[in-house]
Design brief:
37% of the residues lie in helices and 19% in strands. By secondary structure, the protein is an alpha+beta fold.
Length: 615
């Protein structure tokens, strides 16, 4: 943590990744509870020399910094005090108000959790908000299951192998397996097949099914013995996610208490029953294609929910909620990989490797860790904001939201056009995200574009050269909207103004042309008329000027009579906003002058036509 970052955090509220303690004369004993909590959750900074009072933080300083630091580092290296040796580093910041010690506590490895104190696992903590909470019994069991070298789904079960499998599911699975694995002998007996592929294992001279075998292929009664809760709860709501609370009743619901193959089939049937299915025919194969546009992202998300849940957690149920504006997936059990790792190709460590492999063999699970990438790729092709991932280390849960909100809007195209910069489609997506959030990191860039880490960094460098964003922090992976653009593009609360933007009542200026005097472009600011939205007349111009048009043609097309007023009120704002361009820019009054859409204008026209055609 740099000095500037420390000072910035002192101005904010204490939260999940930072803890301030006074520690004027000695390292506080409860600091180890914070170490346990950070190590069991997602890591964080522990800062000595700061007092909290009435919601504010005041630097009081550490009197004997060497002693406090040495005592604290001695504690965290004593396995009698804390169960795991953590690589904790400290930094000393000599400030005017006093000396401050900042320690970074990393997240422990999966097999090291729970990290506990005084050789007592019941003294394990997790970070929840700004608190260090003692783990409950259920939370401890979740850590222990995930830390085990023997995966939970691979454990053999002492049940009757002649009755525990669902025959119809086994037949379906084997048919799908044969189609996905040509050349493998499909005539062997069910027992030989199940043994060959790890569903049955020999233990003490007796064949026993694994827990994965029951969960994937088992008959209902045996599945419910192994998993005494629903495998999935699917709910459909007629309202938006913002209108949801516990009192809102679903319009349709599916609860599944059967094996995972049947769960998958039931979820897909529910999805197709409630989805819009456009009719289309592939011109090459003449095959009918009526899959909903979001099917790939939904499919991968639903399979992810089924196969990666914590099946030992009987207190929480996986839930899929369909809203008008988004679909949400909740899973008990966090992902072992980080969000950044999930977006990278390559196999990842998973909670249920036997179940994952069982689905992978029949083409229902990603190859090489590409499932989350497929979710993001499918959503990106639809033009939506990237899916939202919450991998909650303290709660040990995983949430995924597929929001049906377009990344690029007409207002953003107008804003980008006025920059005067030539942005590629991927650069435009990143800039649009920046104008919404104000900040972006390399993982966000990869999510928005599908690029690799190296290519994502090159894209960010190109935007930096164009003075559209700037690096923030010491990691080199966080970036913010350039300062001279923040007032112009970042949202302003209703009724407020910033130094470069006027408030426009209802967003409409005279004759329906919403315009504001703002700073434009990049580099040295200058005042121009910048479009906020187009008037009806300007939309007519955009629709008509896909080929070069004279001003006389444009006036005639829109039905205007006054040439000077038309040019000043409607035409010039489109030119200044980068939507139209002159064919003879060096001679504005040339008799041969024509007006035609820029590349940004073409994009704006296409987007407007798509929105007009949408139901």
């Amino acid at each position: 943590m740099t000095r500037d970052e420390l000072l910035a955090r002192l101005q904010s509220i204490e939260w999940s990744d930072i803890e301030f303690k006074e520690a004027a004369w000695a390292a506080p004993r409860d600091a180890l509870e914070t170490v346990s909590a950070f190590a069991n959750t997602a890591g964080g900074h522990l800062v000595f020399g700061v007092r909290q009072a009435n919601g504010t933080f005041t630097i009081t300083g550490v009197t004997d910094a060497d002693k406090v630091q040495n005592d604290f580092l001695g504690w965290v290296r004593d396995t009698n005090k804390i169960s795991v040796l953590l690589p904790i580093d400290g930094k000393v910041h000599a400030l005017a108000e006093g000396t401050v010690l900042a320690f970074y506590v990393p997240e422990a490895q999966r097999n090291e959790k729970p990290v506990y104190l005084d050789r007592n696992p019941r003294k394990a903590h997790i970070r929840r908000g700004g608190r260090d909470d003692t783990c409950t019994g259920d939370e401890l069991l979740r850590f222990i299951r995930d830390a085990s070298s023997t995966r939970y789904d691979a454990e053999p079960l002492d049940v009757d192998t002649s009755r525990c499998f669902d025959e119809a599911t086994v037949r379906w699975y084997r048919a799908r397996f044969a189609a996905s694995n040509p050349g493998i002998d499909a005539t062997v007996s069910d027992e030989a097949f199940l043994r060959e592929w790890g569903f049955l294992i020999e233990q003490g001279g007796v064949l026993r099914p694994t827990r994965a075998a029951i969960l994937v292929l088992g008959s209902g009664e045996y599945v419910r013995q192994v998993l005494p809760r629903m495998a999935a709860d699917v709910q459909l709501y007629r309202n938006t996610s913002a209108e949801y609370d516990s009192a809102v009743r679903w319009a349709d619901r599916l609860t599944v208490e059967d094996n995972l193959i049947k769960a998958w089939q039931a979820i897909v049937e529910f999805y197709f029953r409630h989805s819009e299915r456009p009719f289309a025919v592939d011109s090459a194969t003449l095959r009918r294609d009526d899959d909903p546009p979001d099917y790939i992202s939904f499919r991968e998300s639903a399979i992810n929910l089924l196969i990666h849940q914590d099946f030992g957690d009987t207190t929480r149920v996986p839930v899929i909620r369909f809203f008008r504006d988004q679909t949400e997936f909740f899973n008990p059990g966090d992902a072992f990989a980080s969000r950044e790792q999930l977006l990278d190709p390559g196999d990842k460590e998973v909670r249920n490797p036997s179940i994952v492999n069982a689905f992978r063999r029949i083409g229902l699970s990603d190859q090489g860790g590409t499932g989350v990438r497929a979710i993001f790729d499918g959503w990106r092709r639809l033009g939506y904001l990237p899916p939202e991932i919450e991998n909650h280390k303290a709660e040990k849960s995983f949430r995924l939201r597929l929001r049906k909100e377009k990344l690029i809007t007409e207002a953003q195209l107008l804003a980008q056009a006025s920059l005067g910069a030539h942005l590629s489609a991927q650069e435009a997506d990143v800039f649009a995200y920046l104008t919404r959030k104000g900040q972006i990191d390399l993982t966000d860039v990869k999510a928005l574009t599908g690029l690799s880490g190296a290519d994502a960094r090159q894209l960010v460098q190109r935007l930096t050269v164009q003075a559209l964003l700037v690096a923030q922090g010491e990691t080199g992976s966080l970036f913010g909207l350039a300062e001279h653009l923040r007032a112009r593009f970042l949202p302003v609360a209703p009724g407020q103004t910033n130094e470069n933007q006027q408030v426009i009542d209802a967003g409409v200026a005279p004759e329906g042309t919403a315009q504001a005097t703002e700073q434009a472009g990049f580099g040295q600011p200058q005042l121009v008329q910048s479009l906020v939205q187009l008037s009806a007349i300007q939309w007519q111009i955009v629709a008509f000027a896909d080929v070069p048009r004279s001003i006389t043609e444009l006036i005639g097309h829109t039905g205007h009579k006054q040439r000077a007023f038309f040019k000043r009120q409607h035409l010039e704002p489109l030119l200044a906003g980068g939507i139209l361009q002159m064919t003879v820019p060096d001679k504005p009054t040339s008799p041969a002058q024509r007006y035609v859409l820029t590349d940004a204008g073409v994009q704006l026209k296409l987007l407007h036509e798509q929105q007009q055609a949408a139901p």
